[in-house]
């Protein structure tokens, strides 16, 4: 497959995953099935924008806290309805789980998305007593990591999964015509270049079969923040999140264990 630049090749995922086209319809089917039977509140507003809505899935009985999952899609694709099934692991462990949508590029810049997710975190914290954990995948992993930075909301733990934490290489990709990153914006929104807030726990997670650029990004954040990171053997960029639906998975233990 031809790519316009080496950066485009480095950050391509589906082109290097067998059966990649099957994942999106599978995710959406699982999400719809989960939403049909789950207990919760759908479409809660956390801001005035059309996409500033979240779904809050609830366990039986009082929640032990709330986990917020931020979806990926290179800040340009998907919405909360595509990922509902990934709340299953948290709910089964007695936690509430919030899944927000957020305004996508090109309508919003990444800095604005960071502020939106911070607003979503504050909204769910006001509704659900207890610790707040933010997990996210890919671009959502970036936004999850940003919640641990000094300018973020109060959270107990973040779990960035296959995150993008140094955005400067993305300026060389074709998608930057949509993201509109320049050097200043890329640096300002790169968690690996920012300081985490004291007391916030972080655990970075990445698939062992990810593209080298994503393994590099994950290690970069773990080293910059001196936090643990896990390379999930045999997992690629599209199935590394599967453990979120399993309350007994090592990924869910990284998210909620000990809280």
UniProtKB/TrEMBL annotation:
Alphabetical UniProt keywords: Hydrolase
KW Hydrolase (keyword) present = yes
A single GO molecular-function term is:
hydrolase activity
Keyword Hydrolase recorded: yes
The Alpha/beta hydrolase fold-3 domain is annotated at 67-176
Which PANTHER family does the UniProt entry name for this protein? AB HYDROLASE SUPERFAMILY PROTEIN C4A8.06C, KYNURENINE FORMAMIDASE
Name recorded for this polypeptide: Alpha/beta hydrolase
Native source organism of the sequence: Pseudotabrizicola alkalilacus
